[in-house]
Amino acid sequence: MSFFTLSSDIILIILEELDPLSLFHFCLASRAIHAIVTRSTTLRYHHELALCGMRDGPPGSYSPRTRLLSLLGYKRGWPTLSPSAEDRLFITPPTIMGVSGNYLFHASQSPLNNGYEWVLHVYQLRSFRMAPQSRLPYYQHNVPFEIRKVAIDASQELMILAQLFFPPQQQVVLIANSAITVMLHIRNLYICQDHPRAAQPRLSFQTDWWGDFPPGQRLSIEQVRICGSLVAASIRLELETGEGTTELVVFNWCRGGSPVRTLTGDLLSFDFIDESRLIVASHPDDDGSDDSTTWERRSDGLYANEKGKRPPQIAIQEIYKAHDHDFPSSRSYEFAEAWSGVSFVQLCPNHSSNISPLPGTLFDSSTSCRSTAVLLEFQPHATPSGCSRKIIVVFDQSRLPLRGERFDTMRWEDWQHHCMVLNLPDRADAVQLCGRRLTFFENLKDAQDVATAIDATSRVHVLDLNPRTASFLWSLSRTDPPWRWRDSLTALSTVFVHRGSRYVRTSTVDAINMTWMNTTEDSLVLYDVRLHSRSSSLLSKLGFKEREGQCHIRILTFGKEVRESA
């Protein structure tokens, strides 16, 4: 019996039982089914979810029609760089600032009773995938220590403040091995008090470094990431020559105690896959060790003895199967032998959520469509043929091994066909990944001009790695690319082909005054630090020197505002 001999009501019931991806494949296989889907608001919404690489949110008060309209607005906004809202903040240049989760933060010192305290400002960013808000919810917290990093997980009302604790000088003299300690303060997001689920108000880890550092040597907290009950932090010691070493520690913040796992390596960066696995990028040496540098402490500081390098690699680390705090890898992925001459390796954490969406969320990025990206920068004399100085390697997390699979190493020749290798401009900066969307900005002035000019002139680029976006943009304009879009940002979209699939790259046409950028699932956050003449210390974590002046923050939010409820 033919499927289409069934009554229309029965066919609709069958199609409504399908998940979005299965429905999408049914539509590909049959024009008749696709025609049925386009006539049903609910089915079309599910079909559009699959087209956009999204998943439906929790059941709520919003009708399928409202969800569909919001999704279509979101689908159009990003590839055309047409924001639906723009918020602006003007602040004094802070010591640190950034975005975590869907929250913008900045922190700086403030005088208090002959001393200093730190003031942390937190703004909840807009999301048109949730109920509308007339303004950005704002929280201010005073803390008695210097904040080095901030990580936020709104689903747990969790905020982690990272601190580097340097022992008092007299203690260093009395106790030769008084180590510098990393402190992670576990706080409630909204009131900045101890989090009620935390067994301890703070977690600590003693580094391998102590005492004062000579000029040119720097200790910094590079990353802090949250995944459920786990929090991971990486701490890097860098010498004046640029060489250094990184320590990675993982805690269970609910149980407290000592680190669950530790790892040391050079040019090491990481991201959580889930609560049982990490993905780690590093640059191992000739003997296979991730730590490519041996260290010698002398009276005038630390000295590095660099060993030979192998090509960079990424490794999947099983968190709960380790012994003696060493990570066992379930699988390692090696890059090409010709790529051994890299000067920089960075795994770009995926900023889309890998947990269940918050109540009230209409839709969000599907975890089945999450990608992983690794940024590589080559030394000028060691750039491989066919590559620019900066390249990005992108592959789907669905290609990663399942938990419990045996350890093995995949050579580049065996897995290169499962990833994309894209050349970036030499001056690309702030490379970030959210779902399958890759963003960065390009400095249009040389480095010396940017460092001394009042305004840093830049161009924003968005690479949509969803292969279905190109046909959608063609349906909007009915012309061949490049497409020009005029909104608060004038943008130009072009199509590039990779292994037979067509992808879209959208760039701003007009130069923008900006020094940094953050990306969320809903927003672009553009920072323009306007510097004046007198120096102090600005945005060291973002790579800029601090000066007095003003910081202008533009928050561009994409999507369609939700107003209608069922």
Structure overview:
It is globular, with a radius of gyration of 25 Å. It is mainly beta and 566 residues long. Among the domains are: 69 residues; 158 residues. 40% of the residues are buried. 14% of the residues lie in helices and 44% in strands. The strands form 9 sheets. Strands 27, 28, 29, 30, 31, 32 and 33 form a 7-stranded antiparallel beta sheet that branches. The protein has a 5-stranded mixed beta sheet with strand order 15-16-19-20-25. Strands 2-36-35-34 form a 4-stranded antiparallel beta sheet, with no helix packed on it. The protein contains 9 helices and 36 strands.
Radius of gyration: 25 Å
First and last CA, distance: 38 Å
Question: How many strands, which pairing sense, and closed or not: the largest β-sheet?
Answer: 7 strands, antiparallel
Task: Classify the beta-strand content into a percent band.
Answer: 35-45%
- In one word, what is the shape? globular
By oligomeric state, this entry counts as single chain
Structural class: mainly beta
DSSP helical segment count = 9
Q: Low-confidence parts lasting 5 or more residues at pLDDT below 50?
A: 292-308, 447-453, 533-547
Average pLDDT confidence is 85
Strands, count = 36
What share of residues is helical?
A: 10-25%
Organism: Boletus edulis BED1
Region (Disordered): 283-307
Protein name: F-box domain-containing protein
